[in-house]
Amino acid sequence: MFGRSARIETKTPEQILRMRRAGLVVGQTLQLMAQTVRPGITTKQLDELAEEHIRGCGAVPSFLGYHGFTGTLCTSVNDEVVHGIPGARVLAEGDVISIDCGAIVDGWHGDAAISVVVGGREAGRPEDLALIDATEDAMWAGIAALGAGESLYAVGAAVEDSVTEAGERDQRDYGIVEDYVGHGIGTEMHQDPQVPNYRVREKGPTVRPGVTVAIEPMVTLGTSETRILSDDWTVVTADGSRAAHWENSVAVTDEGLWVLTALDGGRARLEAAGAAYAPLD
Ligand code: MG
Ligand code: MG
After folding, report:
1. Among all ligands shown, which has an atom nearest to the Cα of 62?
2. How far is the CA of 233 from the centre of ligand 2 (A)?
3. pTM for this model (two decimals)
4. Which protein residues have their CB within 5 A of the ion that is ligand 1?
């Protein structure tokens, strides 16, 4: 089902610089959300604040109105994996919330997600903290596996290996969600190719400088299986186990990688992974 298109659309350095502007709006909005999440706040309040911030930056929320979606954010709590709709739900101490955000600047998109414990890490169950960290680490492992001349599917292999290693370390049997995957990004939020978060047999398309993709593993404390609630949006784990979701939009440049939605461009985590940090600004 993947890899039909041998070539991936590439962007020029000028276009990637525009995507960085959108990426920074997304990164700053998520930072604001991380600072704002607390027990007693509703997901709708977070959503309103995110919309105000994005518009205040001169950007446009990309999720709002997307196939009829009613939020600026996706807010997915506990067993919700992705696509949760902001609403009247009041967040409680110890909840795990995944916040996904997209914004458009001058027609160019950024897309990223974080997962945090409501009330801060000290309020989190140990298994939830381990899940959140394992998912974030898997995202960075996937990003670091992006390389010009390499198969795009090296990303999924790296994500899977990272989750497996974390499971051995944490003595947990994490599930990697396969029903939803990463994607190309640019003048549309979702472009070809798909970027699976697991090892696939096919060789896959070859990464080249100018490729821009969103890498977004979703990991659970139980099953890989998901179902969709009757609101036709909210994706939950089939077994009710909690899930985490991390995402960044990344550009492959001539010299390495630039994480467009990370405030530091990905510098800290790329260097820690031994990957080349190569911004264009
Ligand atoms: Mg997203
Ligand atoms: Mg995405």
Report:
1. 1
2. 15
3. 0.97
4. 100, 111, 113, 247
Distance 73 CA to ligand 1 centre (A): 9
Proximal ligand: closest to the CA of 190: 2
- pLDDT, tens digit, 9 for 90 and up, residues 73-110: 999 999 999 999 999 999 999 999 999 999 999 999 99
CATH superfamily name and code, 13-272: Creatinase/methionine aminopeptidase superfamily (3.90.230.10)
**Does the structure show a pLDDT above 50 at 1?**
no
CB 31 within 8 A of CB 263: yes
Q: Which residues contact residue 113 at a Cβ distance below 8 angstroms, ignoring those fewer than 6 apart? A: 30, 74, 82, 98, 99, 100, 101, 216, 245, 246, 247
Domain boundaries, the chain: 13-272
Share of the chain above pLDDT 90, in %: 97
Tell me the per-residue pLDDT of 119-138, one tens digit each, with 9 for 90 and over.
999 999 999 999 999 999 99
